[in-house]
Write a structure and sequence with these properties.
Layout lengths: L1 H5 L2 H25 L4 H11 L1 H22 L2 H26 L14 H8 L1 H25 L4 H21 L8 H7 L9 H16 L14 H10 L13 E7 L12 E3 L5 H7 L3 E6 L7 H10 L13 H4 L10 H6 L4 E6 L8 H8 L3 E4 L17 H14 L4 E6 L17 E3 L4 H24 L6 E7 L8 H6 L7 E8 L8 E4 L4 H8 L6 H12 L2 E3 L2 E4 L2 E3 L6 H18 L4 H4 L5
Parallel strand pairs: 1-6, 1-8, 3-10, 4-5, 4-6
Antiparallel strand pairs: 2-7, 3-9, 8-9, 11-12, 12-13
Helix pairs in contact: 2-3, 2-4, 2-5, 2-10, 3-4, 4-5, 4-8, 4-10, 5-7, 6-7, 12-18, 17-18, 20-21, 21-22
Length: 601
């Protein structure tokens, strides 16, 4: 009996407790991934994908060891670890709920975007987030100070553990590099689904999906990529003699937050009028139609990236989830419409009626070469509608007019609106629209939002007609709002949940009156072609591709008036598509040979 008592039960129980904490935390991640379905979480862990679940537990165990060694205590390490798990888990649940996609490693960089987080989750959850963050920071400072007083033997053990776990975490961070042993262990049973990160996380577990989205090369290298191959492509699309265009009209981009047409969705009937009546009055008389958005309920920065650069998200590796934060900041300059127009004597201005740090826009706009960036703190016009917390579209349009009226040089103005951003409830007193099929308060408020947006757009375009200078406008919605019921989402799976409205407008009314389906990376090339402006070699490549493949994103390809899950390309079309791949790789991950050929000027 005495021998039994002398066994290190306390240490044994500590080990059991730590292992239990790791397993419970991984189960918690699975719960947030599966709408808190205990049945699905337990089946994933102990029936369907046990090996992948415990591989995830191993990663969490290493992270736990690193935290505990950093803080110098298993007790405080456990508390800090639990706070981190709770915070990431709740964030994952909310993102899945609002945007139908999980948390990515790069999303953790947004932890200091307090204004954005408050607006997205509401005051109560934002206060909870601040409490978790404050508790974590306090615990970190308190524990590190206390750990400095530990005896030398424990300090030595702590240092060894910290160095060991740090090294393993660094190795885990190279998960997507060739030969990584952890990746090989996952590959034995994991069926990665790169075209759908939501399904990827479901299939490999939260930890598997999270690891899969750690840093990776932007694109796979095309087999025939070389300086000679790039030169061959650039020469093919730069056959005409270049000359300076006589006309330099103002160009205005307007990316309208969540602007879309709910009446296009199956299962919905809107009563009380048409919220897009004013929009249609303009769109039906100019070049317009539907634009294919990469995501449902979010992904604003990715659509903006496509529209400004002409590069498609579909060509990137699946882990390249947000180029604005993961790719563009790595460059001193990056080819875009901004640079093309600046080389032609344009002044360039970005306007975003919110703060400057979302998606690293301040840094990204500087890399693109914008002359100035106006945000909520530097805009003159900041009016809001009723209880809407965001600056109105009407005020943002007035900011554009200020720039057009005071500058003599041709202008490129890029506006990213905020009026129709979530949350939608409690903005307006009067909600005249009623919806059969999904009559939620959020949807009814959203309808009023887009009605105000439509009115502001029509007024803006009518005012443009009075300008003495020719002005071209591209207006589009970035994505659908993430507010529709599960039933409506199920009934509209595929491209219907990804189609938003777009139009191009010429205050001299010279554009074709045509209805089309397109992708945002075609906007600049299409505008230059429609407006009969001098096109770059890259834009000629894009318009050539657009004729064969008018719109595409992962698992959504629009060809010959039909939608397919895979591209159906003949030899001619495949060759054009490969030309596009070569140029995009050359700029984003290659040697940028095409810049030497002035392909973007």
């Amino acid at each position: 009996m005495q021998k039994v008592r002398k066994l290190p039960w306390r240490q044994f129980l500590k080990i059991i407790g730590v292992l239990g904490l790791i397993i419970v935390s991984n189960l918690f991640f699975q719960l947030t991934q599966n709408e808190f379905s205990f049945d699905l979480a337990f089946k994933f862990a102990f029936s369907w994908h046990t090996e992948k679940f415990f591989l995830g537990c191993f990663v969490l165990f290493i992270f736990y060891g690193w935290v505990s060694s950093l803080l110098g205590s298993l007790k405080t390490g456990s508390i800090f670890y639990a706070l981190a798990v709770i915070g990431v888990g709740i964030a994952n649940y909310l993102k899945m709920n609002y945007r139908m996609e999980p948390i990515y490693p790069d999303d953790l960089k947004m932890i200091t975007e307090f204004g954005m987080i408050r607006d997205m989750v509401g005051t109560r959850l934002f206060i909870l987030f601040l409490l978790l963050l404050a508790s974590g920071i306090f615990l970190l400072i308190f524990s590190v100070k206390k750990s400095l007083k530990l005896e030398k033997k424990r300090q030595r053990t702590r240092l060894i553990l910290f160095v060991l776990t740090s090294g393993i975490l660094i190795y885990i961070g190279s998960f997507n590099q060739q030969g990584n042993l952890l990746r090989k262990a996952y590959d034995k049973t994991a069926l990665w689904i790169p075209y759908s990160q939501k399904m990827n996380y479901y299939n490999t577990g939260f930890m598997g999906g999270f690891l899969y989205n750690l840093p990776v090369e932007a694109m796979e290298k095309p087999e025939n990529y070389s300086a000679a191959a790039v030169k061959k492509v650039t020469k093919e699309y730069q056959t005409e003699t270049r000359r300076e265009a006589a006309e330099k009209p103002n160009i205005v981009y307007v990316m309208s937050e969540s602007f879309s047409d709910p009446s296009r969705l199956k299962g919905l009937e809107i009563y009380g009028g048409d919220p897009l009546q004013e929009y249609r009055a303009v769109a039906d008389k100019t070049y317009s139609g539907q634009m294919l958005s990469q995501n449902y309920g979010g992904g604003t920065a990715n659509i903006e990236f496509e529209a400004l650069t002409g590069f498609s998200m579909e060509l990137f590796n699946a882990q390249m989830t947000t180029p604005y934060t993961m790719l563009v900041p790595e460059f001193e300059s990056f080819p875009s419409l901004v640079g093309t127009l600046k080389a032609r004597g344009y002044e360039t201005t970005a306007i975003h009626p919110y703060n400057t740090s979302m998606y690293k826009r301040k840094d990204v706009y500087q890399t693109f070469g914008f002359d100035q960036f106006l945000d909520e703190s530097t805009m003159k016009h900041t009016d809001k509608i009723e209880s809407n917390p965001y600056i109105s579209d009407k005020a943002a349009y007035q900011e554009i007019f200020d720039q057009l009226e005071k500058n003599k040089k041709p202008q490129f103005l890029h506006l990213v609106t905020m009026q129709t951003h979530m949350p939608y409830e409690n903005k307006y007193d009067d909600l005249p629209y009623v919806v059969q099929g999904d009559n939620s308060l959020a949807l009814r408020s959203y309808l009023q939002d887009i009605a105000y947006s439509s009115e502001a757009l029509k007024g803006f375009l009518e005012k443009l007609d009075e300008l003495p200078e020719r002005t071209l406008v591209v207006f589009w919605g970035d994505h659908l709002p993430g507010i529709y019921s599960d039933a409506i989402q199920e009934e509209n799976q595929g491209y219907p949940l990804h189609e938003t409205e777009f139009l191009m407008y010429d205050n001299r009314h010279r554009l074709n009156n045509q209805q089309v389906t397109t992708s945002p990376f075609y906007f600049a090339a299409d505008l230059f072609q429609q407006g009969r402006l001098q096109m770059t070699g890259f834009q000629k490549l894009l318009t050539t591709l657009q004729k064969e493949l008018p719109a595409f994103e992962k698992s959504m390809y629009y060809q010959s008036g039909q939608w397919f899950k895979e591209a159906r390309l003949n030899k001619k079309q495949e060759k054009i598509y490969q030309d596009y791949q070569i140029i995009q790789y050359d700029i984003t991950a290659g040697k940028q040979y095409s810049l030497q050929e002035n392909f973007f000027e």
